Amino acid sequence: MPAKDEVMPEESQLHPDLARIYDIFGLHHSHQISVLEVNVRNTKRFSDLLQAVESEFLMVPGTPSDEPEVEGFPVDDECLVNRWGSTQEEYIEQFRSALQHLNGKSRTITLSGCEFTEDDLLRTAVRMVRGTTRMKQPRWVLMKDAFCCGSGVAHALCRRFGFDPDEGLRK
Description:
By secondary structure, this protein is mainly α. It has a domain at 107-171. Helix content is 46%, strand content 9%. It has six helices and six strands, in the order H-H-E-E-H-E-E-H-E-H-H-E. It has helices spanning 16-24, 33-57, 88-102, 118-128, 139-147, 151-160, and strands at residues 59-60, 78-79, 108-111, 114-117, 137-138, 168-169. Strand 3 (108-111) and strand 4 (114-117) form a beta hairpin. It starts with 15 loop residues before the first helix and ends with a strand.
């Protein structure tokens, strides 16, 4: 139902530019302008969400330029994907490549002013795990207790960092 003061566009009276915008969104020209406005607002919101995800997860340090006019300026970060001018298939392929590039890369976190990668912290925890008794226990059992995880995850953690899951450890 149209709002009191909202006029429904008539197809013959609809400005050609506005008709093209209706067509872009797949809306019939008889829809109220408020329907078109909601579609535009949703598109903007989705674009902002995509920008936030790209900025948070897909930015990598840029490479310095060889051009003399930019010498001394800070190097801008680069996004691993480019949605501007890309087809859907191209963007999906760029995203797939970005995921492969990022897979296995550990985030850097700062604790008490010192920077560590998550992998460094996990590797240290796997290396330093010790038993609580004089009886030997397999490393994976101690990892399971230390990380409150199942045996499969405990084995995977040991193997990921090059430790034998079945190595017997004691106090």
